[in-house]
Specification:
With 545 residues, this protein is an alpha+beta fold. It has 13 helices and 26 strands. The strands form four sheets. Strands 9, 10, 11, 12, 13, 14, 15, 16 and 17 form a nine-stranded mixed beta sheet that branches. Strands 1, 2, 3, 4, 5, 6, 7 and 8 form an eight-stranded antiparallel beta sheet that branches. It has a seven-stranded mixed beta sheet with strand order 18-19-22-23-24-25-26, sandwiched between helices. Helix 4 packs across helix 5. The chain is elongated.
C-alpha cells in the first residue's frame, strides 16, 4: 500500500463508516469561514512521500493537524497517528512559533478543563530529528514549543504504513474521532454543548449587582477565612456583575465566587442558579435572585483574559471611587485585585426585579459560596416563581417583608423602616373595607411576572387595585419610579382587571408635580392616584388630585 492509497482508503472508510472526522471539511467551512474546501479529509496536496513520509488534513499546515506518518523507533518502522503541531517554517507559515501560539494556549487550556479527552493518548515530539520518549498528555511549554519541532498527541501502530490492514485503519479513524473535540476546542474554538447545572451564592447587593452597596464590616475581621469578604472590607467583587462597563464584544464579564471554586473539567455551565443571604437583625434570610444560562468559565482562558484585562485596568479608578463612596475599605481591592472568572450574554440572564424569599432553604447544608450541581428544574432547589404563571389574587401578609424592593442606590435601614411604617399604616387606613381577614387585602404576597407588589386590594374575584410605596423626598421621583413598576404589574396581571394604580409617598406634590400626575392620568388607560402619607395627621393619608 502506498501513502496515497492509505490516505484514499482512510477518506473512503471515514465516509462509509460515518466517522465524525469525515465532517471536518464542513466544520472548517462553518467555523473558519472557508468558502470552498475539498470534500475529502486528505488530498494529494498534503501527502508527502519523500525522505519523510506523512500526510495531514487539507488546510492543516497553518493550524493543528490530523496527521498520519512513518516513524522509526530504534531500528523498526512504525506508523504514527494523531493531532500534531508542525513548527517547521513554510511559505504560508513563516513564523510558526508565533503564529501557532494561540493554538498552543488553547491546547493547554483544553487539557486543564477537559483532561478526560486526553486519556489513552501519548504525547511526544521531535527536536532536531531526535525523538522524545512517549509520555502522558502535558502542557506545551517552551521546551516543547520550539522552532522546528514536531509535536504529536496520538498513538503508535507497530507496523509500517505499507502493512496496515482494515482493523488498523479503523483504529486510526476511531482515534481521530476521539481527538476531534480537542481540535474543535483548539482551532475552531467550538464550545461543547453545556449540560452541567449548578446553584451557588452571590454577595448581597441593593443595586442590582451593577454597583456596590454598603455592608457591615470590621477591620478586625480582615484575614479571617470564616468571615465573608464583604464583612472584612465592606464590598464584594460580585457587586459589579452586571455593570455595563465590562460588556465587551457581546459578552458580560464578571466575578462569581462560586465559579472561582468550580471543579476543573468544566468550562461552561448550562445553568447557574443564584441565591443570596441578607442579614436582618440576627437572622440570615435567603433569597433566590435568578439564573444565568450558558455561562463560560474563563479564569484560565488566556484569550478571554486578554480581552477583559485592559478594560478592568482602565476602570480601576472608578471601582476604587465606588468602594470609597460606600465607606468600604479599598485595601480589599488592592490586596485582592478584581478579575473576571466568567462571561455570559445578557440575553441569557433571567433575574426578577425582586429576589424571592426562601424560608425553607437550609443554609447550614450548603457551604458559603460553593457551587452545587443539581438535576431537574430550578423548582427542585428554590421556590422560584414561574415567569409565565397566570397571577391569582392571594390574600394575606408576608411574614417577612421584602428588603429588595428599593430601586434607589441610597437604600438604607432608615428607608426600609419608613417603607415598612407606611405599609403598616396603609393596612390600617384601608380598614374596614379591606383586610386580610376579609380575604381582600394582599401585603407583599402577590407576584406579577416574579415581582412583588407592595399592596393589592381585591374589589371582587376579577378586579384589583395595586399600591406601590416610594420614600423619596421628591414627589416627581416617586411618581417616575412607581409608575414604571405599577405599569409592569398591570401588564402582567393576566385575567385580573386592574381598576386603579396608586402611588403612596410621604412627599406632598407641588403644583408642577400635580400637573405631571394629571398629564399621566390623561395618557394612561388606567386610573392613577397619589396618596400622601403624613404620620402626624389624621387620617394619615390624603389623596392628591
Amino acid at each position: 500500500m502506498t501513502l496515497a492509497q492509505l490516505a484514499a482508503s482512510l477518506n473512503q472508510k471515514a465516509r462509509a463508516g460515518n466517522f465524525a472526522i469525515s465532517t471536518l471539511p464542513e466544520l472548517r467551512k462553518q467555523y473558519l469561514q472557508k468558502k470552498q474546501l475539498p470534500q475529502d479529509l486528505f488530498t494529494g496536496r498534503t501527502i508527502f512521500d519523500g525522505a519523510d513520509k506523512y500526510f495531514f488534513h487539507y488546510g492543516g499546515r497553518d493550524e493543528m493537524q490530523f496527521n498520519v506518518g512513518e516513524e522509526w523507533i530504534g531500528d523498526r518502522k512504525v506508523t504514527r497517528y494523531g493531532l500534531c503541531f508542525s513548527l517547521e517554517p513554510s511559505r504560508s507559515l513563516t513564523n510558526p512559533v508565533n503564529d501557532l501560539t494561540p493554538f498552543k494556549q488553547r491546547f493547554n487550556q483544553c487539557l486543564m478543563v477537559h483532561p478526560a479527552w486526553f486519556k489513552g493518548f501519548k504525547q511526544w515530539y521531535y527536536h532536531k530529528d531526535k525523538r522524545s520518549q512517549n509520555q502522558s498528555a502535558s502542557q506545551l511549554t517552551g521546551n516543547w514549543f520550539q522552532y522546528g519541532n514536531f509535536i504529536c498527541l496520538g498513538g503508535i501502530i507497530n507496523k509500517a504504513y505499507t502493512s496496515l490492514n482494515d482493523q488498523d485503519q479503523q483504529t486510526i479513524l476511531a482515534a481521530f474521532d476521539r481527538l476531534l473535540p480537542i481540535y474543535e476546542y483548539v482551532v475552531l474554538q467550538k464550545k461543547p454543548v453545556p449540560t452541567v447545572k449548578i446553584f451557588t451564592r452571590l454577595t448581597s447587593n441593593e443595586n442590582h449587582w451593577e454597583l456596590p452597596s454598603p455592608h457591615r464590616w470590621k477591620k478586625s475581621n480582615q484575614g479571617k477565612r470564616n468571615i465573608p469578604f464583604e464583612n472584612q472590607f465592606g464590598f464584594g467583587h460580585e457587586e459589579w456583575l452586571f455593570n455595563r462597563r465590562y460588556n465587551v464584544g457581546g459578552y458580560q464579564y464578571g466575578y462569581i465566587r462560586g465559579i472561582q471554586h468550580a471543579k476543573a473539567g468544566t468550562d461552561i455551565f448550562a445553568e447557574v442558579q443564584l441565591y443570596t443571604v441578607k442579614k436582618v437583625k440576627t437572622a440570615n434570610l435567603v433569597y433566590y435572585v435568578g439564573s444565568i444560562r450558558n455561562l463560560e468559565v474563563i479564569k484560565n482562558d488566556e484569550a478571554a483574559q486578554n480581552i477583559i484585562r485592559p478594560v478592568i485596568q482602565r476602570f480601576k479608578p472608578d471601582m476604587i471611587n465606588e468602594i470609597e463612596q460606600i465607606n468600604a475599605d479599598r485595601r480589599g481591592m488592592d490586596d485582592n485585585p478584581f478579575i473576571a472568572v466568567a462571561r455570559f450574554k445578557l440575553k441569557d440572564v433571567d433575574f426578577p426585579d425582586e429576589p424571592v424569599y426562601q424560608p425553607d432553604f437550609d443554609l447550614e447544608t450548603f457551604k458559603r459560596f460553593q457551587p452545587y450541581e443539581f438535576e431537574g428544574s430550578v423548582e427542585d432547589v428554590f421556590e422560584a416563581e414561574i415567569a409565565d404563571e397566570q397571577p391569582i389574587f392571594i390574600a394575606g401578609k408576608a411574614s417577612q417583608t421584602s428588603v429588595y424592593n428599593k430601586k434607589n442606590r441610597d437604600a438604607s435601614v432608615t428607608v426600609e423602616k419608613l417603607h415598612t411604617e407606611i405599609v403598616e399604616c396603609l393596612e390600617e387606613y384601608l380598614l374596614p373595607k379591606y383586610s386580610v381577614t376579609k380575604n381582600n387585602l394582599s401585603i407583599e404576597m402577590m407576584r406579577f411576572h416574579g415581582n412583588i407588589a407592595d399592596v393589592v386590594t381585591a374589589h371582587n374575584n376579577s378586579t384589583i387595585s395595586i399600591y406601590e410605596v416610594k420614600t423619596s423626598a421628591s414627589g416627581r421621583r416617586n411618581i417616575r419610579d412607581a409608575i414604571a413598576q405599577l405599569l409592569d404589574y398591570a401588564a402582567h396581571a393576566g385575567m385580573l382587571k386592574v381598576r386603579k394604580l396608586i402611588i403612596v409617598s410621604p412627599s406632598s406634590l407641588t403644583p408642577k408635580e400635580l400637573a405631571f400626575l394629571h398629564h399621566l392620568n390623561a395618557s394612561l388607560s388606567y386610573t392613577l392616584e397619589y396618596l400622601c402619607y403624613d404620620k402626624n395627621q389624621t387620617p394619615k393619608f390624603a389623596k392628591q388630585v
